[in-house]
Design brief:
5 helices; 61% helix; mainly alpha; 96 residues
Length: 96
């Protein structure tokens, strides 16, 4: 794999037209705070291509997948919990 293909996700994160995110939000230890920030960003973005819920959830999944094995188990749990908080914030049912 070349250096260019290894870093494509960093470029997406930095230059994406999807949404403007609060800096370092995914490093928070509070799932509810992460969900609220993503919801705010998705609802206020004029550049997103999908509905706010889908855009917010996609950004959260993108970060989890991008971090991969480098994500500590504790932080991964917070981010997974943020998915449920995000569903709740948008009035969607939680997944069991």
């Amino acid at each position: 794999m070349t250096a260019a293909t290894q870093k494509w996700s960093a470029g997406v994160t930095e230059h994406s037209d999807a949404m403007d995110l609060e800096e370092h939000i995914f490093e928070s230890g509070d799932a509810r705070k992460i969900a609220a920030s993503l919801k705010r960003s998705a609802e206020h973005s004029h550049r997103r291509k999908a509905e706010p819920f889908q855009s917010a959830m996609s950004m959260l999944n993108f970060y989890i997948n991008r971090a991969g094995k480098n994500l500590l188990a504790k932080q991964k749990k917070v981010l997974e919990d943020a998915k449920d908080e995000l569903r709740e914030a948008f009035g969607r049912p939680r997944e069991d």
